[in-house]
Hints:
single chain; mainly beta; six-stranded antiparallel barrel; 1 helix; 2% helix
Amino acid sequence: MEVFKYRSIGVIHSPFKEIKGMPIQPSSARGIDGWIEIFPPYLAGLEGLDGFSHVILLYHFHEVREMKLVVTPFLDHAPHGVFATRAPTRPNPIGLSVVELMSIENEVLFISNVDILDGTPLLDIKPYIPAFDHQQDVRTGWMKAGEDEIRTKVSDDRFEGTENREDGERFTGADPS
Length: 177
């Protein structure tokens, strides 16, 4: 299998110093503020972003230590394939959150509705564009039963693995410059 290498473009900061007790999605993190430090080589990429109210953050689950292809998600009691969930123990531990962009000041993006662990390496930012991103007539599979809990559910320790990832790699999120 081909191996890809990515660089962190910045670091996400939040009030969450440990995984247990964090909101499980931005919809359950309403009003929780954070900030993103963008590394100097990538600052020109922020041009024009201040006109958007929301952004999609792609980031590396840097504290994930193992991969599981079958998981029991926070909002269900039955096991599901990891690709049918938002669980962090993925073959490629990439997270996605849609957060509110409050402001940009120099190399710092101030954000709200943050459900991300402090110190998380940021891989990419994309503007949230309803005409592209909002879908009609959506099916939510097994998730339909747990939708009432989304705004109140927080994480527990079910995804805090102690084993190393299968490939032995650990992404540090170091500044590429």
